Amino acid sequence: MAQGQSRSSNVLVVPQANQALDQLKYEVAQELGIAIPQDGYMGNMATRDAGAIGGNITRRLVQIAEQQLAGQFK
């Protein structure tokens, strides 16, 4: 698989969000003490580590959405 390409079938609703999501991935990994390979290939990464990163990203995105919704209803 070529570098930078993903096998994921997920399509972003806002394609411009891709860079922000990548940045979030690296921030979460750093907070958890997990090193993401510099070449971007995560095939050798432990499933537990990948799951921890994904779970924390989801938690953070839900938290952001809740804050935005709470701000709309004040």
SSE map:
Blueprint: H1 18-32, H2 47-72
Radius of gyration: 14 Å
Largest sheet: none
Overall 3D form: globular
Helical content class: 55-70%
Q: Which consecutive residue ranges, at least 5 long each, have pLDDT under 50?
A: none
N-to-C SSE series? Answer: HH
Question: Terminal Cα separation, in Å?
Answer: 48 Å
* Total strands: 0
Strand composition percent: under 5%
The residue-averaged pLDDT reads 86
Structural class call reads mainly alpha
Q: What's the total helix number?
A: 2
Describe the structure.
The chain has helices at 18-32, 47-72. The chain is globular and about 45 Å long. The model has no long low-confidence stretch (mean pLDDT 86). Helix 1 crosses helix 2. It contains two helices and no strands. It has a domain at 45-73. The chain is mainly α and 74 residues long. InterPro entries: SASP_alpha/beta-type, SASP_alpha/beta-type_CS, SASP_DNA-binding, SASP_sf_alpha/beta.
